[in-house]
Amino acid sequence: MRRKPDILWVLVVIFGLGVVTTGYTQSLWERQSDAPPVIQTQR
């Protein structure tokens, strides 16, 4: 009989994933703002 994971561990995993995702998207935003602006032509 397996024990259900404690709600605390579930929250810790969700919080950890949120921190990692936020850090990753923030680094992507910073990298995008460093790039020179691209001019797109409309067709």
Descriptive report:
This protein is mainly α and 43 residues long. 65% of the residues lie in helices and 0% in strands. The chain is elongated and about 60 Å long.
Features:
0% strand; 43 residues; mainly alpha; single chain; 1 helix
Task: Describe how the helices and strands are arranged.
Elements: H1 7-34
Outline of the structure:
The chain is mostly helical. Helices cover 65% and strands 0% of the residues.
Q: Element order, helices and strands?
A: H
Over all CA atoms, what is the radius of gyration? 20 Å
Poorly predicted parts:
none
Question: What characteristic shape results from the CA principal axes?
Answer: elongated
Please give the number of β-strands. Answer: 0
Q: What's the tally of helices?
A: 1
Main beta-sheet strand count, sense and barrel state:
none
End-to-end separation: 63 Å
Q: What percentage of the residues does DSSP assign to strands (E)?
A: under 5%
Structural class: mainly alpha
- Output mean pLDDT: 83
Q: Helix coverage percent of residues?
A: 55-70%
